Amino acid sequence: MIARLRGEIVERGPDRVVLDVGGVGYELWCAPRTIREAHDHATFHVHTQVAEDTLELYGFATMEERAAFIRLISVSGIGPAKALPVLDGLTVSQLAAAINGGDVRTLSAVKGIGKKTAELIVLELKGKIAPSAASTPAPTPRADDSFALALAQLGYRKAEIDLAATHIAEIGQSEAPLPERITLALERLAKGR
Known about the structure:
Layout: E1 4-12, E2 16-21, E3 24-29, H1 32-37, E4 41-50, E5 55-60, H2 63-73, H3 80-89, H4 92-100, H5 104-108, H6 115-125, H7 143-153, H8 158-170, H9 178-191
Parallel strand pairs: 3-5
Antiparallel strand pairs: 1-2, 1-4, 2-3, 4-5
Helix pairs in contact: 2-3, 7-8, 7-9, 8-9
């Protein structure tokens, strides 16, 4: 997975940039604010989204924005097209405050997020985005956070990640090294329900 890219922005669009890294142009989908604030030579923290027939890269100015994006797309019905406008309309601190405070009105003021979607975001993410995430360094992830993050980067949703974590616990492999747990989880998820 691509986690970070540093290079020169050679193209800018309203919601994407092309970043030249050593002669290779990477197309990154970004929140408009990220594009506006980026210098010509920039570093992006990247989330790789793999689907059946596509591989897309999403770029963020900070690791906290990337983590918030991953949390948002873990919510049922929230894909990248809805998550990016949220991060354009709200900083990570504002997003965390709205979610943790149950502020549906602030969330539903974001373009493309209605009241029901805002309520779902609050329900699923309350307490999962730290209020001070934008002003403090990202904490070293615990093993379970790394496990969930790795599966989320592979495109699995929260329910699937929870299922995999339960399976790992049931077979007594919770303390196994991360690569081994990921392999076991992928084997379990490949079998389906």
